[in-house]
Amino acid sequence: MAKEKPAETPVVTIEQVGKHEGAEVVLRGWLYNLREAGKLLFPIFRDGTGVIQGVVSQKEQPGVFESLRGLTQESSVIVTGRIRAEHRAPGGYEISVTALEIVQRVPESDPYPIQLKEHGVDFLLDRRHLWIRTPRQAAVLRLRDEAIRAAREYMNSQGYTLTDAPIFTPAACEGTTTLFEVQYIDDEKAYLTQSGQLYVEATAMALGKVYCFGPTFRAEKSKTRRHLTEFWMLEPEAAYANLDDMMALGEGLVSHIVQSAVKNRARELETLKRDTAKLTAVKPPFPRITYDEAIEILQKRGNPAKWGDDFGGDEETILSSQFDRPLIVHRYPAAIKAFYMQPDPQRPELALGFDMLASEGYGEIIGGGERISSYDLLVQRLRENHLPEEAFQWYLDLRRYGSVPHAGFGLGLERTVAWVCGTEHIREVIPFPRMIYRVYP
RNA sequence: UCCCCGGUAGCUCAAUGGUAGAGCGUUCGGCUGUUAACCGAAAUGUUGCAGGUUCGAGUCCUGCCCGGGGAGCCA
Question: Which residues in chain A, range 245-304, keep a C-beta under 7 Å from any nucleic strand B atom?
Answer without folding.
Answer: none
